[in-house]
Amino acid sequence: MSNPLVDMDKPDVIFCIGTNMTECHPVAATRIKRAIARGAKLIVADPRRIPLADLADLYLPLRVGSDAALLLAMAHVIEREGLVDAAFIDERTVDGELFLEHVRKFPPEWAERISGVRAEDIERAALWYGTAERGAIYYTLGITEHICGVENVQCLCNLALMTGNIGREGTGINPMRGQNNIQGAGDSGALPNNYVGFQAVDDPAHQKKFTKAYGRETDLEKGPTKVTALEMCGDRIKAMVIAGENTVVSDPDRDHCEHALKSLDHLVVIDIFLTETAQLADVVLPATAWGETDGTCTNTERRVQRLRAAVPPPGDAKPDWWIVSQLAQRIGFKGFEFESAKEVFNELCELSATYHGLDWDRIEHSEYQWPVPHAGHPGTPRLHEGEFVNGRGIFKLIEYRDPAETINDDYPVWLTTGRRLASYHTRTQTGRSAGIDYLLPEETLEVNPSDVDAWGLADGEWAEVSSPRGSVRIKVRATDRSPRGTVFASFSFADVPVNVLTGSGYDPITETAELKVCPVRVEPA
Amino acid sequence: MIRRATEEPVTQQPTPPAIHTLTLDGEEVSFTAGETLIDITYRHHKDVPNLCYDPRLEPFGACRLCIVELEGANNPVASCTTLAEPNMVVTTRTARLETHRRVLMEMVASENRDIDVDPLSGYASQQMRELVDQYDARTGRFQGEQSGTSREDDDNPFIKRDYDNCISCYRCVRVCAEQEGDYAISVMNRGFDTQITTEFEGLLVDSACTFCGQCIQTCPTGALADLKALANKDVPGETVTTRTICPYCGVGCTVDVMTRGEQIVGVLPAMDGPANEGALCVKGQFAFDFVHHPDRLATPLVRGDDGELHEASWDEALDRAATGFRKVLDEHGRHSVYGVASGRAPTEACYMLQRFIRAGFGTNQIDNCSRA
Amino acid sequence: MNTPTNQELFDAWRHEPAPLLPLLHAFHDRDGYLSEGAMRAIAKELRLPLADLFGTVTFYHHLSREPGGHQAPRVCTGPVCQLKGAAQVLASLDGATSMPCPGRCDDPVPVLVGDKVFTGAELDRARSPLPPPPPDGIDECVFAAIRATARDSIEGYRASGGYRALPTAIEKMRPGELLDLVDASQLAGRGGAGFPTGRKWRAVADAEGTPKTIVCNADEGEPGCFKDRVLMDHDPHAVIESMALAAYATGASRGFIYLRYEYPETYRLLARAIAEAEAADMIGNAVCGTGFSFHLYLRRGAGAYICGEETSLLNSLEGKHPFPRNRPPFPVTHGYENLPTVVNNVETLVSVPPIVVHGADWYRDLGLSDHPGTKVISLSGDIKRPGNYEVPIGLPLMSLLQDWAGGPGEGRSVQAVTMAGLSGGFLAGEDLDVALDEPSIRAKGSFLGAGGIMVFDDTRDMIDVAHSAMEFFAHESCGKCFPCRIGTRRLTERLNGAGPDDVTQWVDEVSDIGETMKQTSACGLGMAAPLITESLMKYFPERVTEHVGNRRGANR
User: Fold this and answer.
1) Which domain holds residue B219?
2) CB-closest option in B252, B345, B352 to A325
3) Minimal Cα distance from C61: which residue of B?
4) CATH code of B46's domain
5) Residue B110 touches partner C, C-beta closer than 8 Å
6) Distance from the B127 Cα atom to the nearest Cα atom in chain C, whole angstroms
7) Are residues A478 and A518 in the same domain?
8) Is A408 inside any structural domain?
């Protein structure tokens, strides 16, 4: 997030797109609700009538995968109506003129034909956001899990740049991170293109720095992403270590994923449960869980916080850092003689640009949001104040693209996937916590009541959902939250492996899968 | 041509609030405009009693225990709803105030079934008991009808709705509306017949309730109680809390994990957690017991010749894991190894795994699960 | 006539100000009750949380959630009607339930059936009895013209001197001058609090924020008070004219009359008068043909005494749970929709047009000695001529009872009277020798308030009367603050045979509860209720001893 969580009750116009925040980030959503109670206007764009839409002053029910069309048209209206922040564009951005010329091609009527959102509502959304004193954008995977995920994000950045809604209190571009430490995972360098602290691997200076630190030279060349690596399994990739991820269930195209892992010569899984993925491993190493582990994590607003052990782990379970460092030593790698999480974290801080001013003791009270470039620096709750992190904000000239697969005679229904309040990811944790079943006993396919009738389905009865990659049986739930022609399910339940259906395409830059769009056929089962 | 929306962007630079002074228990103290008297008494550790006050919520003025004497006013005033004004003369403890407070506590005690409730009930659950004892209010005076009807028919596994112990402070209703924004519960009827309810007196699961547990944590009597924590009330040992971060989404709510011995018995939201400021959701509040689930892996497993996974010692397992990598490395080169880190493990886990791949194999063949 | 659809009802009210109460009534009237479906539809349409709407509906006594509930008869069991056979009426009507005093103490026993009121004297009596004429030599203010022919119509109102003040003020006075005039008259709030009207208006005129609002508090819920009803029934245009004057003086552009539920006929009369006044440009976009605009809306309560408390009333108008608000801030700066608002009682308002016509000195001189003005007293109970009397402030109470109203029944004596309806507790014995002005009555530990006086002769059991009074307060306590919510219940129980059976302990408990209620309650209800027990113990200690002692005997 460019802005801190405390900024969420400060905007006067809030634009939420592709974020089911009340279910996926409920505590952050409480701040939005407070902003609404205080008088802020809320615009919600989502294919489903999610609970957040019920709170909205303006709800834009767009067709799955048509985000860029909607956003380009909003930029069009803002430009047409003269709501552009010229001073901001002059002083802080690049390619503003080109961009403003570019968006003249995308009137709301054009976007209505693609997205299904009424042109007048697009106008209204643009006027509200364009005239906001403090306009803030929030998004989640509904924006990024597309073949055009990066372009969607760039469209949002364009909106913020053209209106100057960035770098100030109550504004910003704010992706809500889905997992407790997904930010920390990236920060730590567990990425194929970056060392710790987002230091690019293809920069020789960084290579030199880390060669010195690690005592061994690392390639200048980026590694493949996980998605590509899975493609390469059994071919170039022969051995894998997977820590704490149930790849088989959470990734798209489950059959393909399972096949890939089975074709490895050697698979080591580190986890707290014998997940579907762990069951394929040659060696399973038991890790300590939350509540048993000392360490750190970093939240969606870049706040670095301490995790503390409260109870001992079961049996012989060990912290991940210990397991991996032991493994490294057994292989014969040098420099892995770590004694504590503190020691690991302090090395990380030493080598990271963004954490450089931190150490284990300094984060005791959760006060710091990175970047913290040096000791004594107060941290950076709000990014891009006065100046962008990378100099000037760059407008990107985006064109709308259709999803990888679009509905057709064989697969005439849009399936979109997501998460639900009471369950978390593949339910390894929530599924093993007493009482959660009371709220969410099983997965269902959410279908508009009219479609239930039209397709010969029945509320509470079974349906068969098929895509070119496979099919699943799932119970039908009739609900107005789904628009006609679009159905929804989460991927949380192992007995309804929705991800056998998805996986039609990937964003070419991030290789994030298009989990939000998948044409399917729905029939009574 | 770039056109301008407004003349000049209005920079919102609020003027810092003016500093004033008033007299608090004979001492001159300063305050900023907009502060209530109770804010000031808290800052000066005056320990003014209260039951309906939650600093996160709008002042309400129900319990009247926080009354103070204000020079020039005939009656005491509720300090929670009285805005401080310059030169006020405020006294927090007089014989008259203490008498009223005691009578009020006797009245509250008279309408309630239990004064002593298990501390696992919730964060604020001991508040009424402490005040009853502080004011020596177990006198049995003012006996009469008791208020509130418990909802034993509500079968939800999280929130006990024991309204026989409700004192109608409305903190639950207010936290649900003001803090959580769910508006799932409200006040039914009036006067002594007041009852906290969902719409049409239904079950929580059929209402707008999201089971975030905020009502439990703000309840000062344990009328609303944490059923999951209370299920552990017979676990021996003293309750100890450990501060950590919720294991679920990326918001990073601070929690205080309650343990007895080697068992987690419940979770409390941290009122001073920077991300959540006391808020939690159903997962963070209630989905903690996976940690002790029998499915937890307690021993390394190694795939045997029979194709099955078998328990092994760390020594065996690490050897086996290391040998596998060594072999692949020797036969296929360093670009044949790949690592996947987790966005749910601590940063140290991710860091160590990328270090393993980079410092060990010299490649960038590492990623995390953020692409799914 | 076709039954309106939900959508038609929403279309009628959705864009009106303060739409919740009218919508609730529209569904209540249409369906005969408020169904779950109706509440769901209203919550969705007005974007209100359903639980909140449900809770608010349950707050109001007269909103029924059972089919047919709207038409079920409600019988007054207030303190006076209890003396006049309420119990028998209640028992004789199928499906009847009791209701708190609906302001018909001059004509007991009223029964409310749907939108009609039936009274003991006449079936479906349309109108309040006119006030009895004053004794010779007494000048009136608000009643001076009320007995004129057809005074309730715009023609009759004009013919008897109405709608003279408003054009005069608009044409000849600046708003500031009107404020000066009201200040000079020393007119003070006649709803009970006695706050100087000129000061209140000036505070609103000076406050920042628009639109400003004039609210006429016609939620006359105090048992034993029925003066506003007679004013509105016979002189509705005076209410309208005075509100327009208040608007002119303060710069307000909208007004509400918040009328209690139990006055359905008054609702119809006011609605007609408002339509007439709009047609005649006395209110609307161009008042008296000038650029001054003032829109007036009529809203009906749903049965809650606390809504007579001005901040509860504002919450009720806004569609919120009608708990009283914390003060400060006061309505003059943070009233309806948090904007500057005048809230005045009916009687206060209708005093203004005569003041504009006759001058401030004239009004002040209506009172006796140095007391300014008049006060309408609603007199009822054991008295020969019950009714509304506009008395000069300072008139001795006994003079009103004996000379004006004929005294108690033949051969009876006055044992006690209530003051301020019930809120002032009892006066009895030597304290009956008191002048009807606020300082004199306050010196006796009571207050004049809204001016309801109920008379109890020497045959009445004052414990019963006190119990009935406290039961009323317990029934009407909103439940927000502890001392009132618990205290009214505990005092009711103690007047009904519960509590300690030792007199000293009983008196200690009742006194302790009472003192804490008086000094710590959040609003006037909780502060006033214990005056009942306090005055009971003061004037009738033997009856208290007997009451507690009897129970002690019965328990053994």
Assistant:
1) 114-231
2) B352
3) B189
4) 3.10.20.740
5) yes
6) 16
7) yes
8) no
Q: How many residues does chain C have?
A: 556
Task: Look at chain A and report how many structural domains it folds into.
Answer: 4
Q: Nearest to residue C16, comparing CAs of C243, C254, C314?
A: C254
* Residues A197, A68 within the same domain: no
Shared domain check, A359 and A478: no
- Same domain for A192 and A144: no
Q: Give chain C's domains with CATH numbers.
A: 6-69 (1.10.10.1590), 72-118 (3.40.30.10), 154-362 (3.40.50.11540), 367-457 (3.10.20.600), 462-555 (1.20.1440.230)
Contact C54 B167 (CB under 8 A): no
Question: Is B65 inside any structural domain?
Answer: yes
Between CA B247 and CA B342 the distance in angstroms is: 12
Name C515's Cβ contacts closer than 8 Å, sequence gap at least 6: B100, B103, C530
User: What is the three-class DSSP state of A328?
Assistant: helix
Cβ contact A245–B295 (<8 Å)? no
Please indicate, yes or no, whether residues A144 and A50 belong to a single structural domain of this protein. yes
Q: Which pTM was predicted? A: 0.94
Shared domain for B290 and B325, answered yes or no, is no
Residue B95 forms contact with C (CB below 8 Å): no
Output the domain CATH number for residue B267. Answer: 2.20.25.90
Greatest Cα-to-Cα distance within chain C, rounded to the nearest angstrom:
78
CA distance B207 to B215: 14
Q: Does some domain include residue B85? A: yes
Chain centroid offset of residue A417 CA: 13
Query: Residue C166 CA to chain centroid, in angstroms?
Result: 26
Residue B224 and residue B247 in one domain:
no
User: Would the CB atoms of B336 and A324 count as touching at under 8 Å?
Assistant: no
- The number of distinct structural domains making up chain B is 4
Q: Is position B105 within any domain?
A: no
> Of A141, A176, A211, which one is at a domain's C-terminal end?
A176
User: In the sheet where A58-60 sits, what is the strand order?
Assistant: A58-60, A41-45, A13-17, A135-139, A172-175
For C428-463, the three-class secondary structure string (H helix, E strand, C coil) is EHHHHCCECCHHHHHHCCCCCCCCEEEEEECCCCHH
User: What distance lies between CA A40 and its chain's CA centroid?
Assistant: 25
- Residue C310: how many other CB atoms lie within 10 Å: 28
How many residues belong to chain B? Answer: 372
Substitution target from A8, A10, A188, A248 for chain B, most B beta carbons within 10 A: A188
Residues B139 and B204 occupy one common structural domain: yes
Q: Which of B61, B96, B186 sits opposite C326 (nearest CB)?
A: B61
Return the HEC string of C334-400: HCHHHCCEEEEEHHHHHCHHHHHHHCHHHHHHCCCCCCCCEEEEEEEECCCCCEEEEEECCCEHHHH
- Tell me, letter by letter, the H, E, C secondary structure of B199-212: HHHCCHHHCCCCCC
Q: What is the CATH number of the domain that holds B178?
A: 3.30.70.20
Per-residue pLDDT of chain C (556 residues; tens, 9 = 90+): 689 999 999 999 999 999 999 999 999 999 999 999 999 999 999 999 999 999 999 999 999 999 999 999 999 999 999 999 999 999 999 999 999 999 999 888 999 999 999 886 555 555 788 999 999 889 999 999 999 999 999 999 999 999 999 999 999 999 999 999 999 999 999 998 889 999 999 999 999 999 999 999 999 999 999 999 999 999 999 999 999 999 999 999 999 999 999 999 999 999 999 999 999 999 999 999 999 999 999 999 999 999 999 999 999 999 999 999 998 899 999 999 999 999 999 999 999 999 999 999 999 999 987 889 999 999 999 999 999 999 999 999 999 999 999 999 999 999 999 999 999 999 999 999 999 999 999 999 999 999 999 999 999 999 999 999 999 999 999 999 999 999 999 999 999 999 999 999 999 999 999 999 999 999 999 999 999 999 999 999 999 999 998 765 454 4
The structure tokens listed for A172 are 């910003």
